[in-house]
Design goal:
6 strands, globular
C-alpha cells in the first residue's frame, strides 16, 4: 500500500491543486516501511492524479480539493481523505490506526478563475479548513 500526503514543511498542505510536494509512504502490514518527499514539478490539478498513479499511490490525504481533482482521483482508483490538517506523519499514523478524522465530502468549489486564487483549506470555508 502507498499513501501520499500533500506536503509542506512537515504538514498537510491545504490546496491539492497547488501542492509542490507529496510525501509518499510505503506501508506493509499496517506499518510504514519507507517514506520519501517527491516534487510535483509544477503539475497542477488534473495532472496530479496521474502523477500519484505513477507512484502506485492507493490513498491520498489532503486539505482542500476541488470536484474535478476528486473525479480524477476516483477514476485513478485513489481513495481520498480530505479536509485534514496538521502533521503529515501523524495523519498517516492516524489513518493506519483507523482514527483519522477526515471529511468524506470535502469540497473546494469556490475557485476564482481570474488568477486571484483563494485560501482553500484556510479559514475561508468557515470551518478552519478541517470540517470533521
Amino acid at each position: 500500500m502507498k499513501i501520499a500526503v500533500t506536503y509542506d514543511n512537515g504538514n498537510v498542505f491545504q490546496h491539492f491543486g497547488h501542492t509542490e510536494q507529496f510525501k509518499v509512504y510505503d506501508v506493509e502490514n499496517g506499518s510504514i516501511t519507507a517514506a520519501q518527499v517527491v516534487d510535483t514539478n509544477g503539475s497542477g490539478h488534473g495532472a496530479l492524479a496521474g502523477f500519484l498513479a505513477s507512484y502506485q499511490v492507493d490513498t491520498l490525504i489532503c486539505g482542500g480539493i476541488g470536484a474535478g481533482a476528486q473525479m480524477a482521483l476516483s477514476e485513478a482508483g485513489i481513495r481520498l481523505c480530505g479536509g485534514v490538517s496538521g502533521s503529515a506523519d501523524e495523519a498517516v499514523e492516524a489513518l493506519l490506526a483507523g482514527s483519522l478524522a477526515f471529511n468524506p465530502n470535502v469540497h473546494c468549489d469556490h475557485h476564482n478563475h481570474h488568477g486571484e486564487g483563494h485560501g482553500c483549506g484556510e479559514n475561508t470555508h468557515g470551518c478552519g479548513g478541517h470540517c470533521h
